[in-house]
Write a structure and sequence with these properties.
about 250 residues, 8 helices, alpha/beta, six-stranded mixed sheet, single chain, globular
Length: about 250
């Protein structure tokens, strides 16, 4: 049984249909890349998978861990082991990043380490991920640069250790060092049994993560799926070649 599946999912935003029959399935420990041009529906799909209230599901189903979750609220999906790395992370005024992470762990029902030990472990992890220690004391994403926001998302992923991580353009805004740190952390996440759905325009991360499957999304549906070689086809000829695909 697949860890995660989407069956002919249809959805709209503000009355406009964006997803027009998306089907996808992933086994535990797999890495899939979802590629497509701007406006193809990738971010809407990510939001739908996490239960965003701005996305109205009009057909199809989403399942995770053997249970249908199509109507489940976002917090239930997060508690059950799903995580969304936002393309544009929001600022959370008045909540320090370290405090936020400790609260998120507690909300998932995991046992909390003593405060001093938690802080020490968090500082060590932040150093590995090249997250400046000063960011831990600042409000979540408030005043962060684009790269700092991406590193913050990566830190959250590594601390929360979900079963399935949906990464919406995790490679944008990162410099070369940040990209390598992210790739190393995501590779470790995968080796520990984590599952990754990487939503991207580019194949930059493929050399690090070696995806099990690559999907091309056009006009609200997946029009082509294949192996890692499909990334080379995209990089050589672009997405326009898929416009007439069934």
């Amino acid at each position: 049984m697949a860890l995660f599946s989407v069956d002919h999912l249809r959805a709209e935003v503000e009355g406009k249909e964006i997803l027009s029959g998306v089907s996808l399935a992933m086994e535990q420990g797999e890495v899939h890349f979802l590629m497509g041009p701007n406006g193809s529906g990738k971010t809407t799909l990510a939001s739908a998978l996490m239960g965003s209230p701005r996305v109205k599901i009009t057909g199809g189903a989403i399942a995770f861990g053997g249970e249908e979750i199509t109507a489940s609220p976002p917090e239930a999906r997060a508690r059950n082991g799903m995580y969304l790395w936002f393309q544009y992370p929001v600022e959370v005024a008045g909540v320090g990043l370290a405090t936020f992470l400790r609260s998120a762990i507690a909300a998932r029902g995991r046992q909390l380490a003593p405060e001093e030990k938690f802080r020490a472990e968090l500082l060590a992890l932040a150093g590995t991920l090249q997250v400046p220690a000063a960011l831990l004391e600042r409000n979540v994403n408030e005043g962060f640069s684009g790269g700092e926001k991406k590193r913050s998302e990566l830190l959250q992923l590594c601390v929360l250790r979900p079963q399935l991580a949906i990464l919406d353009e995790c490679d944008s805004g990162l410099d070369v060092d940040g990209l390598r740190a992210a790739a190393a952390a995501l590779g470790e996440f995968r080796r520990n049994g984590g599952t990754l759905l990487v939503i991207t325009h580019y194949g930059t991360m493929a050399g690090y993560l070696r995806p099990d499957a690559v999907h091309i999304m056009m006009q609200g549906k997946i029009c082509r799926s294949g192996g890692e070689a499909l990334i080379g086809v995209v990089e050589k000829e672009g997405f326009a070649q898929f416009e007439s695909s069934p």
